[in-house]
């Protein structure tokens, strides 16, 4: 694979992983990506990211890539340099492999199933996968921060025959789906690690949910609502309650069973 990316490395597996990560990011292996927003990388790195993801998933079947344990940390760190792009792929409803649509800022042309197959083995390395989920939550927090008090208290009014954008619902829908999708991958890894029906599994799942699951997502919305002056718990039928219900619904669709 390294030769396909124009990289020469004949060292250890870790040295090859470092070289591959650098080819995908243009940075020294292990260097942390900026938190938010995702920066546009040179086209050569973006194309290398596409090639690496595609190569790892090409021969491993539709569900999971074959990524050696040694370099999962490298691959997870590379993903954090493409957080906004990956977020759009996981949260969107289009095929990003189509020429008519790709991501910003790095113009990544990969479909959702390919990205999921690449991420699934990374979830088996808890530390590596945590770095991806933390980066995604930086993105989610940034999206939530764009909502003002009116967005969280009043639904947009729609004139007859006119389409109306609903920013808060859109943020809730997309963040819920992406958070749920990553929770599913983590839940699968936790179940494989501890076994179905064990107390250790339940404890690990609860810890995971608090850190990167629905409770964390709800708290992000509630904390921001308080900052912009939306007081009190969201009651049934309230605007904020509806936004949170949307986030929970799409989270459930993304997380499925594990």
Descriptive keywords:
258 residues, mainly alpha, 11 helices, 0% strand
Can you walk through the features of this model?
- The structure is a single chain.
- With 258 residues, the protein is mainly α.
- The protein is built from 11 helices and no strands.
- The mean pLDDT is 90.
Total number of beta strands: 0
- Helix/strand/pairing class, anyone? mainly alpha
Q: How much is the radius of gyration in Å?
A: 19 Å
Percent strand equals under 5%
How large is the count of helical segments? 11
Helix content: 55-70%
Mean pLDDT: 90
Helices and strands, in N-to-C order?
HHHHHHHHHHH
Distance between the termini: 32 Å
Topology:
Blueprint: H1 13-25, H2 43-58, H3 72-80, H4 83-91, H5 112-122, H6 126-145, H7 149-153, H8 167-194, H9 199-212, H10 214-227, H11 239-255
Helix pairs in contact: 1-2, 1-3, 2-5, 3-6, 4-8, 6-8, 6-10, 8-9, 8-11, 9-10, 10-11
